[in-house]
Amino acid sequence: MQQKIAFIGLGVMGYPMAGHCKKAGHQVTVFNRTTEKASAWVEEFSGAMALTPQLAAENANVILLCVGNDDDLRSVMLGEQGVLAGVKTGDIIVDHTTASAEVAREMAQLCKQLDVAFLDAPVSGGQAGAENGQLTVMLGGQHLDYMRVEEVINCYSKFSQLLGEVGSGQLAKMMNQICIAGTVQGLAEALSFGKNAGLDCHAVVDVISKGAAQSWQMENRFESMLAGQFDFGFAVDWMRKDLDIALNEAKKNGSTLPLTALVDQFYADVQKHGGGRWDTSSLLTRLNN
């Protein structure tokens, strides 16, 4: 079923995600704070663009958002030119921003007052996943609302699942980032150990990746790590933002995250050495110095 979609936020994730929606036959209107980026998207995908989030929402029944953080989300949602100023009764908003569970609940409450549905739906898979339409989507909200937009989400994802009430998607994304932080640090230490021991790390990874040590990070990052290539992928700056959200949530729910807190500080070291935009696998650089 063709939908009228507004896509708010054309960063490295949102740009291709909106493109997949257009390729699937949906009517797509985009908004981006940098109008040049929106113009480039329109030229590439033959969609439409709006000059404010409000105008984008007025022309849509499904509003997808993918911005940077809590403050960015509030910026595009609220105010006279925000999304909520343009929505109509029965519209549905799907927020793909990685943000706090608190802001998800805040936005959901505001939407409820307008008889508009809201789903928090952070994604995993990075820029490559967005470009290839292979993202994993973690959602919080009502089942009937999820069913309404599942076909749209399928345009850019390989798997999606509703995990509970609003906020559950963001909490699941926190778990995802906690797991990644520990896994990347372990892989970095193993590769550093192997090099110092004089082993052929390519040959070793070929073996251990067939056993219990296997991970996505190992399969997709070990070669670039050994080659010292980090100018791509999910940036350290973004990971620190995500880990900060997780660590703050842990304080609220009484969780202890000692490894996550430690790796967060390791990423701070990478930032200090100018690696804020490097891929998260750049943890290895700390061990090579």
What CATH calls the topology of the largest domain is Rossmann fold
Strand line-up in the sheet with most strands: 3-2-1-4-5-6
Radius of gyration: 20 Å
Percent helix, as a range, is 40-55%
What is the CATH-assigned architecture of the largest domain? 3-Layer(aba) Sandwich
What is the helix/strand order?
A: EHEHEHEHEHEEHEHEHHHHHH
Number of helices: 13
Strand segment count: 9
Low-confidence segments, given as residue ranges, are: none
Q: What is the arithmetic mean of pLDDT?
A: 97
Q: What overall geometry do the principal axes of the alpha carbons give?
A: globular
Report the biggest beta sheet as strand number plus sense, adding barrel if it closes: 6 strands, parallel
According to CATH, the homologous superfamily of the largest domain is: NAD(P)-binding Rossmann-like Domain
Count of structural domains: 2
Highest-level CATH class of the largest domain: Alpha Beta
Percent of residues in β-strands: 5-15%
Termini Cα gap: 55 Å
Structural class: alpha/beta
Keywords:
6-stranded parallel β-sheet, Rossmann fold, 3-stranded mixed β-sheet, N-(1-d-carboxylethyl)-l-norvaline Dehydrogenase, domain 2, 289 residues, 9 strands, 52% helix, alpha/beta, 13 helices, 2 domains
Short description:
By secondary structure, the protein is α/β, with parallel strands linked by helices. The protein has helices at 14-23, 35-45, 53-58, 70-77, 101-113, 126-131, 143-153, 168-196, 201-208, 216-226, 236-253, 258-272, 284-288; strands at 4-8, 27-31, 48-49, 62-65, 92-95, 117-120, 123-124, 135-139, 157-162.
